[in-house]
Structures are given as C-alpha cells and as structure tokens.
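Audit log entry. Action: structure prediction of a protein-small molecule complex. Ligand: pyridoxal-5'-phosphate. The ligand was supplied as SMILES and no pocket hint was given, so placement is left entirely to the predictor. Protonation state taken as written. Sequence taken verbatim from the request; no trimming, no tag removal. Recorded inputs:
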Amino acid sequence: MDIFEACYSYRDPDLVKAAGLYPFFRALSSSEGPMVTVDGRQVVMLGSNNYLGLTHHPDVIRAAHAAIDRYGTGCTGSRFLNGNLDLHETLEAELAAFLDKPATLVFSSGFLANLGVVGLLGSAPDAVLFTDRKNHASLIDGARMARSRRVRVFEDLADLERQLQKQPRWENALVLTDGVFSMTGRVVDLQRLAALKRRFGFRLYLDDAHGFGVLGRQGRGTADSLGLSGDVDLMFATFSKALASVGGFVAGDKPVIEYLRHNVRTLIFSAALPPTSTAAALAALHVMQKDPGLFERMWENVAFFKRGVEALGYHTLGTRTPIVPLWIGSEGRAFQYCREAFDLGLFTTPAMYPAVPKGHAIIRTSVTPAHTKVHLQAALDILETLIKRHPLPRQDPDTIPPARETDIVECATKVLEDPDFANRL
Ligand SMILES: Cc1ncc(COP(=O)(O)O)c(C=O)c1O
C-alpha cells in the first residue's frame, strides 16, 4: 500500500466544512487582543491563552521591536552552536531569580522542552515514568520517546498511589503532571502529590503551562500558590500563554539543568528562540512583577464571567483559573455551539475526545484582564442566546460516564443528509 494512502484518502475536514461545522485554522487578519478580525468581521476573542492580556502591552511590543533592531529577525542556529544570545541568558537568570530556583533553561517552544526533557530523563536504563492521563500531549509524547519504555498512566492520585505501591523501588521514578489541567482549568492536588513524593521518594515534574503567570505570588505558579515549590524537582512553563510570546523553559537544580543543556536533542538540534520572542517574554515577566493590578483585573474578570455563565445554566467543571470550560456533552452539539457563537460574534474553541472524555465535549473559553465588561457582557449575551436555542442537560457532568459519542464526522454526515439535524443537537 502507498505510504501516503491515508493522506490521499483523507476527506474528514472537507465533510465537516461542507456541513458548516469546521472550527479549526480560522485565519485572523488582525488582533487587538480581546477583539480579532476574521473574514473581515470583528469578533470577541474568548478562545486564547493570553491570560494576562499582554500580547498588546506597550512595553512588550517595544521590547520586541528593540530586539529586532539589535539582533535581527532570527538566530539561524541552535543555542548550542551559533544561536545563543545574551538575551536568552538574561531571561534564564531572571526566571531563576523570580522562581527562586537555582537554574533554568529556555527552549524554542514548550512542546520541544517537554518532549526533549522527558524523553531524555525517561531514557535512563531503569527509568519509570508515571503520567496523568489528562496531561498535555507534549508530556505524553516525551514519555513515548523515552527509551526505557516503562511508562505508567494513572487516572488520578489514588490510582498513582496504588501503582507506586507495586513498585520495588522509587528513586528511578519520575511523576509527570500538569499543574492546571488545560481543558478543565482544574488544579492538581499538589498537597497530596507532595505527600506521596515524601513517602515514596520519586522525582516530580510539574508542567505549569497554565499556572505560571496566573497562580501564586505575582504568577509564580501552582506550586508557589501552595508553598510547595521545594517539592517540585523540575518545573516547566511556556511563554506562549500568560507571557504573550512563544517558547518555554524548565527550572531546577544546577547540575540537572547543566546536564539537560548539553544533552536534550530538541534544544541542541533546533534553532534558538528568536530575539523578538525572547525579548517579549522577558518584558512580560517584568510587567507581571511591576503591575500587581494586572492580577486583580484578571480575577475580577474571571469572577464576572464565570458567575455570568453559571447563572445562564452552564457547568464550568470546577475551574479555579481563567480557563472557563463550558460543558456541552455531545460533540456534535459543541461544534454547533462554536459555529453559532462565531456567527453571532464570539470566537471560542471546542474541545473533544481525546482532549476530554467521549461525550464530554466542552467549549473552552478564557478570560483576560484586557477584556472589558463590554466584551464579556457581549459574550454572555451570545451564550445566553445559544443555551436558549440548544438547552443543555442539567445533570452534574461528573456523574455522567464517558459515552460512545457521535464523532464530528458522523455528525457532519447526518447534517448533510438532514440539515435540520443540527437544530436537534
Ligand atoms: C499543559 C501544556 N504543556 C505544554 C504546552 C506546550 O507549550 P507551547 O505552546 O509552548 O509549545 C502546552 C500548550 O498548549 C500546554 O497546554
């Protein structure tokens, strides 16, 4: 069989587009942060990870401009060889000081950091990796790359404890967890995890992509918010969310970071983070420390929006962060909601299996301090229209088991056969 057979016979997106339900790769022709232009229309952006709203902050923009003037547009090589800038090292030093960690290492993307670091650490001959089923794809793929091939997936911390009890020893074990789970906005029970760590003595890797810049003192993250930073052996975070840029880093002990710096293949064999992105992340880090009102505005907006959607009847899955998931259930209905929301002027993103369990599709929204009450009220008005058009089950989603759901392709087929099907979702 032609190895490209799957590509040439792939029709799913065409089918979903024909049914008018396709929500991916929408091209933004301009952005002001909370408002973006798509297909010539201005819509409220409620689907970003711009948690501090800093992508358009004047200091951040100025720093990116200045970096282009000083260093040019790219590093044209890996940090290992020709692409290392003093700016990368300044960012690393400032992150280490901010987090009170001995050292940090900056990568060109968060995905590359997780992939490379977890892949490398998990390649020690007797390494065992424990990874939460809800973890981000980059941790999962890092574990898949690990050459020890001993990867254990846990459902929750009770399951982790059961699995740990069966291990003959634990010093070779690395537990991987997200700090804030990206779909639900739920925060990991780090107190319980830290207690398990003290009991068993494994190493802990915390992916704080959605906690850094949001939780803790001035955004120092999930572990800081609980006073548990000392229990985390390696903390990871990205610049692509609260820090309004792109890139990622890990923070830990000096010997660990030094080993990673010389051995992680996704660092050594990939071009360095561009000057603009490095400078923007550094400037965002400064704004976080200078403007405490930023966090107040963020939490005030989160509380306003969350109260609003819950009053309309949406279930928000116990989020404690600016990620406000709206539980929809049926995958077809989630696509329909997204499309209609967009038609009414609201940019949101659907999330479905495998990001969430089958039959538990959500609309993932997030709120930033750059949104005004006018933006958020406009979003609430649209969501009110939608829930009236397509009422949702009132049951607590946590009590609903995963279902065998109609997937989006089946749903699109039905809509094409019977256009009224969409209205019955
Ligand atoms: C939990 C988590 N980890 C890692 C990443 C990867 O980060 P980046 O966007 O910097 O590649 C993301 C981004 O989606 C994420 O949500």
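Audit: result stored. The first strand starts at residue 28 and ends at 31. Residues 59-290 form a domain with the Aspartate Aminotransferase; domain 2 fold (CATH 3.40.640.10).
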